[in-house]
Amino acid sequence: MEKMSRVTTALGSSAISGRTMFCHLDAPANAISVCRDATQVVVAGRNIFKIYTLEEEQFVEKLNLRVGRKPSLNFSCADVMWHQMEENLLATAATNGAVVTWNLGKPSRNKQDQLFTEHKRTVNKVCFHPTEVYMLLSGSQDGFMKCFDLRKKESVSTFSGQSESVRDVQFSMKDYFTFAASFENGNVQLWDIRRPDRYERMFTAHTGPVFCCDWHPDDRGWLATGGRDKMVKVWDMTTNRAKEIYCVQTIASVARVKWRPERKFHLATCSMMVDHNIYVWDVRRPFIPFATFEEHKDVTTGIVWRHQHDPHFLLSGSKDSTLYQHMFKDATRPVDKANPEGLCFGLFGDLAFAAKESLISSDANRKPYPGGDRRYPIFFFKKPDPTEQFAHVSSALSVFETDLDSNRMDWFVKTAQLYLLCGKPFAELCDHNAKVAQELKRPQVSTTWTMLRIMFSDPANLTTPGLNHNLSKLGTLPLMNSFNMKEMSSGMGTESRLERSKGESRQDNIHLEPGNSHASNNNEENEETEGSEGQAEYMFCDAELDDDDLYSMENDNQAEEQEYTLPQEAFQLRHEIIDNPSAPEHLQQDKADSPHVSGNEAEVTCLTPIESFSLISISQPLFSPHLPASFFCPIVREMLTYYAEQGDVQMAVSVLIVLGDRIRKEIDDLTQEHWYMSYIDLLQRFELWNVSNEVIKLSTCSAITCLNQASTTLHINCSNCKRPMSNKGWICDRCHQCASVCAVCHHVVKGLFVWCQGCSHGGHLEHIMNWLKSSAHCPAGCGHLCEYT
């Protein structure tokens, strides 16, 4: 702190001097306020209520207002305000719903003056009128605002916002009778203190709660608001409708906003959570803070400029139990660390590259960007004080465009629109999506869907194809437990056949010489083994097949035999039988000489594994009815990761939804959430809102399913009396009229309702469309020229 420089500011006859300094508090602070002459600051919280004197080198504790043997909840403060006209007058908002005023001129230790207990819940904000000494305004969690005359024992007027909790109230600096109130439902209301029955204006400022608002000290029409949507917005209230003129995007919920004195476009903000820093923004350059104060170690709860005409000193209190005075010259300037280089891809593959002009030599052949010359800074503030302007950094922007035909995303849009993700059996979904991918000339994706159907379908549900399929049609082959083969009457005994089948079953591959694996449907020649009637099953092999290599045999309708009936006469074995026999040498030689063995030794089953593939007849299934889903899950997981890494999150998410619980547990939740968010972002960029909503509904990630559940409340006014509808039904409790009657058929609208924003009349979507085809006037007869867009 000793390195900090000092500054002195002349303000009329007085002068403010000091440095960046801090002091430790006894407890976390909830709010702070400074007196009119900028020499004292009051700090209030749940367990602290003190006044400190601002000296040149340090804070000095002057007065502790928490006195008494039994401190009551009246000392537990959510907000504090020091009157800018009367230096001895303070007001606090208590967490028990009390509004308390304090008179520092009292000779006793207890400085409490008045106690108002009209609010039913916590009071969030108190505000003195800037010029009227005895007028105090409060806003509470109960949704009411009350105006107090400190010369009376109770409030003089109550304002009901017909809404949720009031988070902030602020008197206008220029309009004597006007004050603004912000609410948790995102609305901001403007009131006239002379008319407590109805607000003058209401508009929706943010998509979530509005935590704070502040009137500009110089421009009477500017109102700044901050909310949970991490935005600070500046509204022009001089027009008929509130107009948003500036918007600043921060990184956390905005808890406080205060305009900087003597600087028209500067305001300070602090966050409600996560971010501990205080930012000063120039609203004309909203993407980077003008200055940052990074001293606090916990959330900043209160900020106030030390003097209403001094822009150089900022006071702040925090949950880290510290009180700081920040000198503006000591602030961090984020723009000094900003990167002047940037790289970004466009939606259709265009590449934009920005770099310092000093790094890029002037190129006369460079094509200028049609959006305008970006080589010069958009904002440049010519002020004598260099600390009051942004650093002068200019970058040159180059745009590299791609051929539209080479990078078209039509396939993405059509795939998203045509894919089926639910509503049909799994096999049909896979077949449909494979067909869609095939029509869009994406054979790899189509094959992937086909393989997923084969892997995860119930084998009993697959259709039985005809005979003589080659390997390219393997995906549609029937699954079989056993097959009828022509009895191999010579060349090898039945015992050897049985022994070989048992041995080769452990290899999952049964081999038969190609060209001689002809099967017969003759039951007389097939007495030893009958075809079973059990569920079908695949048998796979690495060998390539020809049309004649694989036959699907008819199954007899007889019951499966319990055991084999071996013939009485055994054939003389030519070689020793082993568990995993290889082809005898003399047979391999015979095969080399003549691939088709004829005579009594035809149809022998001695081949090497790489030569062919065969199906044998057995009475007991060699495998389980079908492979469990867990067998394929590692492969499918790798496949989904591959598609995601290639940028095709559409395929990854679609398979994830269609497979459901079959694969979901194999992929961690964070990866799934990342895929979902990427796909939803792409869908929304292409304005595929219905598909995006369907994906959100079908997701099982809690972080995704809540995306379409936020901000779904619709606040409506009665079309007759123009007042807010408070009932859950469609009957207005004020005028007792139905608010949703169709202007064409005069029946209650129970489905889609469309209305004109100019005259508030409407009705059934179809009726209004048909009416406006032939007439431009409102069907209700009000004379308004309605337009359907």
Automatic annotation (TrEMBL):
- Region of interest (Disordered), residue spans: 486-533
Q: Where are the WD repeats?
A: 116-158, 203-245
User: GO:BP terms for this protein?
Assistant: autophagy; cellular response to amino acid starvation; positive regulation of macroautophagy; positive regulation of TORC1 signaling
Q: Mind naming one GO cellular-component term on file for this protein?
A: cytosol
Q: What CDD domains has UniProt attached to this entry? A: mRING-H2-C3H3C2_WDR24
* GO molecular function ontology, one term from the record: ubiquitin protein ligase activity
Q: Which reaction does it catalyse?
A: S-ubiquitinyl-[E2 ubiquitin-conjugating enzyme]-L-cysteine + [acceptor protein]-L-lysine = [E2 ubiquitin-conjugating enzyme]-L-cysteine + N(6)-ubiquitinyl-[acceptor protein]-L-lysine
Entry keywords, A to Z: Autophagy, Lysosome, Membrane, Metal-binding, Repeat, Transferase, Ubl conjugation pathway, WD repeat, Zinc, Zinc-finger
Basic and acidic residues bias locations: 496-511
Family matches, as SMART domains:
WD40
Which Enzyme Commission number(s) are listed? 2.3.2.27
The protein's role, per its UniProt record:
Catalytic component of the GATOR2 complex, a multiprotein complex that acts as an activator of the amino acid-sensing branch of the mTORC1 signaling pathway. The GATOR2 complex indirectly activates mTORC1 through the inhibition of the GATOR1 subcomplex. GATOR2 probably acts as an E3 ubiquitin-protein ligase toward GATOR1. In the presence of abundant amino acids, the GATOR2 complex mediates ubiquitination of the NPRL2 core component of the GATOR1 complex, leading to GATOR1 inactivation. In the absence of amino acids, GATOR2 is inhibited, activating the GATOR1 complex.
The protein's name is GATOR2 complex protein WDR24
What's the source species for this entry? Perca fluviatilis
